[in-house]
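Quick one: structure tokens for this chain, please?
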Amino acid sequence: MASAGGPLYEAWVKGDPTNKVLGDCPFCHRVLLTLEEKELPYRKEYVDFAAKPEWLFSVNKNGSVPVVKDLSTENWLVDSAGICDAVEAAHPEHKLGSSDSIPDVAGSLFPAFKAFLQSPGPDEDARRSAAYVQQLRQIQDYLRTNSKGPYLGGQEPAAADLSLSPKLYHTTVALKHFKGFETPSELAEVPAYLSRMQGRKSWKNTFYSEDQVIAGWAAH
């Protein structure tokens, strides 16, 4: 059981357990941002993807992270969306919304990014980059026409922002490095939005470098 004043959750995420360095997983990042934005005390533990512990597969048969232990119940939570929904339900005082309340903004960002990243050559690059740019355009259009503030959630980040921004960070960094891609100038509100998210305390407390992102996607 969690002791008074102690952590409420134990979050197992991608990283270096020896040096206590956070890894580059956007799904882990989403969960950590949620805990940070809700200002919930938690303990961060790290899983080396090259040497996953056996117990992880008993908690999550896929052996994937994040997984989070609720220290008040000793129950394990799996899957980033499920974890965030459970945390939201248990702690509604700082409302972020649930995964089913997330507006469908750039829902195909990651598939479009992966297709562009894995493009076989210049002839295919143009088509795949256009599909990715369309996802960026959806983000900008939503910020301009549907959001009531600088974030998808309005004046403060909501679950939508905490899901989207780590993915946007990965796609921006990886495509610049591997494809020389820069966000078109007419979509300047998108990098400005990401910069706002990166300026938040929650992001600074869950930081991992661009070099880590690049190394993580090098195999792809």
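The chain has two domains: 9-99, 102-217.
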